[in-house]
Amino acid sequence: MTSAETPDAPEPRTQSVMLSFFGIHLLGRPLAVSSGSVIAVLGQVGVSEEAVRSTLNRMVRRGLLERHRHGRKTYFGLTPHAATVLEDGRDRIWHTGAVNRDWDGQWTMVGFSLPEAWRSERHDLRSRLVWAGFGPLQNGLWVAPAPVDVREAVSGLGLEPYLRVFRATVASPTEVREVLEQAFDIPAVGARHQAFLKRWDRTDPVPEFPGELAGQLLLHTDWLSLVRQDPHLPAEHLPGDWPAARAESVFRGLSRRWERPAALAAAELLDTVPLD
Q: Which of 5, 64, 85, 265 falls between 20 and 30 A from 105, CA-CA?
């Protein structure tokens, strides 16, 4: 992939940008889009044709896209699994957000003990817990400062018999801030928000890709990556200069500014067919 990188910002993976495109412009619409259209759209952010075709094929193999042949052209539509993933991302962006101002003091706790040889299963479980907003308090005990549907979070792993799930509150002599600092890398979470602001809170956020469609795709890719790594910690127990609120404001402002011109630009590039 041709670099879509600015200083201090990681190059987005092609699949992540492609999912941003499908999530913004195809989710909820019974349409499939031609491979040529995807190539044209991702070309706006410097992704090569070869990288697009390779990623489309990989996403088909992973059950995220389905191929549809119409004449000599190949079209790609979202699978139900992909739609679920994208709907989750949309919910995190527009509903969950980056700032937890309404915490009621309730924690979800997950204890687990897996056989030592189950390294892959342990990795998958930990990945799912991080995704759901958990952090490791101590060996085999993870906590999240929110009500979490753990059964849904670990669905498909087959590990429910090895889990013990509780709802709890912190009691003296334990302090909330102590638990947060032990279970979560608060400076690292804050640094990710600061990095987002450094890239996007400026008059020319992506000067190398000046079009609104390019800006929209890269903005949403960056922001979704950030909020999916953010455990949504309670604001009242974070430093007073916590950057999440400002970062979210910047994201929403740019998203609103680019929404209509990006939609018009995408409409000119998209070749779609209806799905049965």
A: 85
Tell me whether the omega of the peptide bond preceding residue 173 falls within 30 degrees of 0, making it cis. yes
Helices (H), the chain: 14-25, 35-43, 49-61, 80-91, 119-131, 150-153, 176-183, 186-200, 212-229, 244-269
Cα distance between residue 258 and residue 260, in whole Å = 6
For the beta sheet containing 31-34, the strands, ordered from the edge strand earlier in sequence to the opposite edge, are 65-70, 73-78, 31-34, 272-274
Pairing of strands 73-78, 135-138: unpaired
The two most distant CA atoms of the chain are separated, in Å, by 70
State the angle between helix axes of 212-229 and 14-25 in degrees (0 to 180), rounded to the nearest 10: 110
Give the integer Cα–Cα distance in Å for 120 and 103: 33
CA distance 263 to 251: 17
Given the structure tokens 């079209």, which residue do they identify? Answer: 75
Q: Which DSSP symbol is given to 45?
A: T
- pLDDT tens sequence for the chain (276 residues): 333 333 334 345 899 999 999 999 999 999 999 999 999 999 999 999 999 999 999 999 999 999 999 989 999 999 999 999 999 999 989 988 888 888 999 999 999 999 999 999 999 999 999 989 999 999 999 999 999 999 999 999 999 999 999 999 999 999 999 999 999 999 999 999 999 999 999 999 988 888 999 999 999 999 999 998 899 999 999 998 999 999 999 999 999 999 999 999 999 999 999 997
Return the closest-CA partner of residue 73 out of 270, 271, 267, 276. Answer: 271
Distance CA 67, CA 239 (A): 49
The CA-CA-CA angle for residues 125, 236, 154, to 5°, reads 15
